[in-house]
Design goal:
The structure holds two protein chains of two kinds. Chain A is of the alpha/beta class. Chain A has a seven-stranded mixed β-sheet, sandwiched between helices. In chain B, β8 and β9 (244-248) form a beta hairpin. Chain B contains ten helices and 14 strands. The interface between A and B is large, with 74 and 62 residues.
Chain lengths: 627, 346
Amino acid sequence: MTSVETPGTGTSREVEVLDEAVIRFAGDSGDGMQLTGTQFTNTAALLGNDLATFPDYPAEIRAPAGTLPGVSAFQIRFSNFDIHTPGDKPDVLVAMNPASLKVHLDELKRGGVLIVNTGMFRAKEIKMAGFEVNPLEDEKLSLSQHYRLISVDLNQLTNETLKESPLDARGKMRCKNMAALGILFWLYNRPLEPTIEEIQAKFGKKPEIAEANISVLKAGYHYGETAELLQHTYRVDKAELPSGIYRNINGNDATAYGMVAASKLAGVPLFLGSYPITPASDILHFLSGMKSEGVVTFQAEDEIAGICSAIGAAWAGNLAVTTSSGPGIALKGEAIGLAVMTELPLVIVNVQRGGPSTGLPTKTEQADLFQAIYGRNGECPLPVLAAATPSDCFNMVIEAFRIATKHMIPVMLLTDGYLANGSEPWRLPEVADLPRIDVRFAGPADLEDGHFLPYKRGADSLARPWAKPGTPGLEHRIGGLEKADITGNVSYDPDNHFHMVRLRQEKVDRIADDIVEPELFGEQSGGLVVVGWGSTYGAICGGVNQARRRGLKVSRLHLRHLNPLPKSLGDTLRRFDKVLVPEMNLGQLATVLRSRFQDIRFEQLNKVNGRPFSNTEIREKIEEVLA
Amino acid sequence: MTTTEPAKLRDKDYASDQDVRWCPGCGDYGILKAVQVAFADLQLPREKVAFVSGIGCSSRFPYYMDTYGFHGIHGRAPALATGVKLANPELTVWVATGDGDGLSIGGNHFIHMLRRNIGLKVLLFNNRIYGLTKGQYSPTSEVGKVTKSTPMGSLDSPFNPLALALGSGTTFVARGIDIIRPKLQEIIKEAQAHEGTAFIEIFQNCNIFNDGAFEHVTDKKIRDDLLVEVRHGEPLVYGKEHDKGLIWTGSRLEGVHIGQHSDVLGREVTGEDIVVWDAEDPNPTMAFALTQLREGIDPTPVGVIRNVKDHLPYERLVHDQIHMAQQKRKPRTLEELLHSGRTWKV
């Protein structure tokens, strides 16, 4: 892990080669930490590292400067091997002000590198952060003993660099994050060119801003070099990833890409009806930029109009989707019932966040599983899917559309804030390997004795025909009142209602015949299997791998289809003595599994603090269960 | 279903095979007939028409039309219809709603539909009562309305639907009455010809829970003095002998007798003094003044009050933007799309 070599560049500095590193940028929400982290990420991706990121920002756009609630952070883990999570404790912490030091210091590894911007460690900011004395001088904290402390006045470094710049004082200060980024690039021996290119592209129309950012970036890099801040620097070589073309992707972008892909696979135009909500809005933004692909995006007046417009578009023959987060999904509940009743293909994406009510808008949680499966009036079943990683959002949204159109049913896809904003390298799929989405619209051939029967069903899927308004001869009426099977006429007949309730359930149940069974990793039977769903995938992989390296016999299985559950699941779980279900809720999947498999005992690991599991937490629980 | 020579559609060809289940004597029957007759006059192809509704007596409308129909959920018809129209702008999309559905639970969708000027045609059945839930007061009930939920009289002021529509920027605003069918048919045909949102308030009698709510404009004994027919380019004249009219006082419209002295004018009124209606005036001030006439004292306006033509409908603008974007960049193949942006090879 720590082979030391001297590079042949003529300098005396030593370069330590690492397998992986975890960096956390932390600062005020106005300090540009998300941008800084993203730039470091893009460069790591280009260098061929495997990586995972965790942006962690406050709900307020600009909480009062210098306060603890205003701290925004971005963590990246990059490596020369296959990784699944953005890491637990950082090796390097960049603290742009006292508040960010206060919030994040506890998690920095002992002996880790701590870079502080002394320019912000002024009496006022120190007090605002709740320190009684300057933490840099506090003997009790003795930062320089516990960490490799690099104290740099980034304010001054920035101002000095930009002496000649036409920017005003405020504009200059906005560049100081680039100084921090420059130092990190020096520390990890990374090239500046990709970042310079991106700055030039971004500020093409404002060359003075581009120039200032580039100057400060270089100044940070050179400062590290000349001041010889540390005795040696680091290198993380590229990972041995499967060959292919890669791009870096976060979950929301992958979701949006998947929607456009589904539209192209089906040959049916895409319609998004949505209302802005954190953390789902980026899907709306992305698709709004896809007009050249024929995508219609409708920013509705509210969540209900978002889904209702999508239902209208689905009826009119579009591939329709609505996107939101928990509180918005609650508002859409009645309309989801309408889509179930009218048996229209629709995809509903819930980018889960901390709840209930407004909850923690920018923090992650997976506590909307019950809402997804049960949260409507009446017997109102629908398929529920969940993505496991940022790039998996692409696959799962295509899967959602495939099921929705094949089975004529609304499908709920669950992602969450952690997947939405976290990013990873994504090996681009071969188009030929993507699933087919075969859409067939009803036509004159569907008439029987001159009549169209809108609720006549396919033998296997029980799907009714998709008849687009505008088609001569297929005029029909649908709606939320109970429908007679086959004719689709309004029916209050008791037997028909009972029949239709069971039929709608059976439509969902039969989807189990049409899904890929989940893969079981590790021993195929034995002491313990860890069952997860959604964004806990990375931490469960990491935790299980750690445990296995310590010799523990533990397998894992990840669910992407939560309703209906895969058919093999019960038999698989019964082959193990114990089943552990880690979730970022109080045990919702565990409850669903218990009610389905009453003979199996489920252990729980639950965490609901707005933050994802660490690998260590999973591994420790595995050790406890197996002890 | 395909014949070599398309037969001329009659009004009953627009009727579905479902039994109409409104109460006998309900004003809805007249509205249904007016729509079917107007559609037959226009020879609208049935497959091109979609009727979308919410919940309430009026919202059963789609079931009775042999067109495409979507009976939605309470208040959401404008949102459902917006999706239909955006997905397929070629369709003629009509919304059937009521005072509770459109102005209470669906009030938000209603005003946003109007401000967007999306090409939907809206029939607001205003009976000033909740019928399907059996007789509670509605957002258009007059103050003091005694109902099951307001035994001592309602306390809150009603919406004026025409004023609300004008305030929302609606480009086509009209009012009709259920039992005055020829006029209603005329309005429906004008609405059909309008691009952008066309809003029609229809005074509709609920003979079970609010009978006679519009007697002042339906009772032949009194209505001539209490009803003014509004026609673009024609003076606002009313009265049995056409001897009354509306003049502009400088701040409002006022009813006067032609040939009699007017205090406002300080002289005898002539036919020249009567306001000639301009439904196409982009400035909605006069239209708003028309909606502020006192019901039962001043004449109540019926007809097309506003019909502004130079606003492109929302769905056109949406698809124009898509077209413009595609002029700049052709739609990509899935392969090209996935490989766009920053990628690298391993």
